[in-house]
Amino acid sequence: MSNEGVDGGRRRFLTAATSVVGAAGTVAVIWPFLKSLKPSAKAQALGAPVNADIAKIEEGQQVTFIWRGSSVWVLRRSKEMVENLTKGDAQLADPASKSSNQPDYCANPHRSIKPEYLVMAGKCTHLGCAPKLRPEHPAPEIDPNWLGGYFCPCHGSKYDLAGRVFKSQPAPLNMPVPPHRYASDTLVVIGEDPEKKA
What we know:
Layout: H1 8-37, H2 41-47, E1 50-53, E2 62-67, E3 70-76, H3 79-84, E4 117-121, E5 132-134, E6 149-151, E7 158-159, E8 180-184, E9 187-190
């Protein structure tokens, strides 16, 4: 068969154009499949760790982050707030947090890795309401010996500034502390435990 009269430039153009269209078609078919392998934003929100930038939190201020669809509070406690934590132990149902839900590295009087920062799930252990931060003291309308803490407006449960519940409250347990670690001095990763040192 003779190739006389065949335009070589046109043949190369048609071959290249067909290759480009074929490649685009392949990508169009494969892309949805590859995208389906990536977890959805909803799936990531259900379990993925959350980075909490704490650089701008001032003393006495609390900021809310969302992890696994729930509020997690980061409270920056003042030196006075930290010192007051041991003064109210006699009023608490579980001052040593033996029955509480918190990582082992937070089983201490301040229930945190760093005493000045409390990382805590923002819900009452009674029926899941959101207690209000009431750092001021005294506050006789809450308790005659109030040193600051959390007050649940739903049924009146009281917690100290480490989320430890007072005795004889509707709430049975201290508020939970989620796993968390410090990636830097100003970044907390909520949902991940600290790396164990060998």
